[in-house]
Amino acid sequence: MSFFQKFILALCFAIAFFVPVWFLGLGIVVGILYAVFSLFSGDYFLFFIPLVSALGAVGFWGICQLLAKTLDSAINIASPKRLRIYLCLGVVSLSIAATIAALKLGVYGLFCLSPFLVTLFLVNYHRAYLTSK
User: Fold this and answer.
1) Is the pLDDT of residue 21 over 90?
2) What is the pLDDT of residues 89-109, one digit of tens each?
3) Whole-angstrom distance, CA of residue 11 vs CA of residue 16
4) Quick count: other Cβ atoms within 10 Å of Cβ 105?
5) How many distinct structural domains can be found in the chain?
6) Reported pTM
7) What is the 3-state secondary structure (H, E, C) of the chain?
8) What b/e sequence results for 28-55 when a residue is b if at least 16 CB atoms lie within 10 Å of its CB, and e otherwise?
9) CA–CA distance, 59 with 51 (Å, rounded to integer)
């Protein structure tokens, strides 16, 4: 991959994951407070927000490792089995968040699909590494 292609990939990654990472931070900081408050009031749905945020953090760690491997092929990253688990947890978290966003925002919720496209590209690019043992 040339320097220009790596730059475009890093830029697309930054644009695609800007909003999910922002909501991830809000979900961890504010979600924990709401979850504790909701436990005392008897509403258990808000306890779901920190769980989805934790899954998203693990998935974001996995996709960042794939990006690092793309930008520098000599870097050591997690084992393929562990990386597949990270990515699956991230996709589950992003699917839940995208579904909630689509229900609340309507057509604007489709912007939540951009991280899926970047993830799909990186997984396809590293499919030989991810399918190895």
Assistant:
1) no
2) 999 988 888 887 778 877 776
3) 8
4) 12
5) 1
6) 0.84
7) CCHHHHHHHHHHHHHHHHHHHHHHHHHHHHHHHHHHHHHHHCCCHHHHHHHHHHHHHHHHHHHHHHHHHHHCCCCCCCCHHHHHHHHHHHHHHHHHHHHHHHHHHHHHHHHHHHHHHHHHHHHHHCHHHHCCC
8) eeebbebbeebeeeeeeebeebbebbbb
9) 12
The two three-digit tokens of residue 114, written as one number? 């951009």
Residue pair 62/87 in contact by the 8 Å Cβ criterion: yes
Q: Which of 54, 55, 65 is nearest to 119 (CA)?
A: 65
Q: Which domain holds residue 84?
A: 3-130
Which range has the worst mean pLDDT, 24-33, 40-49, 64-73? 40-49
What does the pLDDT read at residue 86?
Answer: 94
Q: Which two tokens stand for residue 84?
A: 């597949």
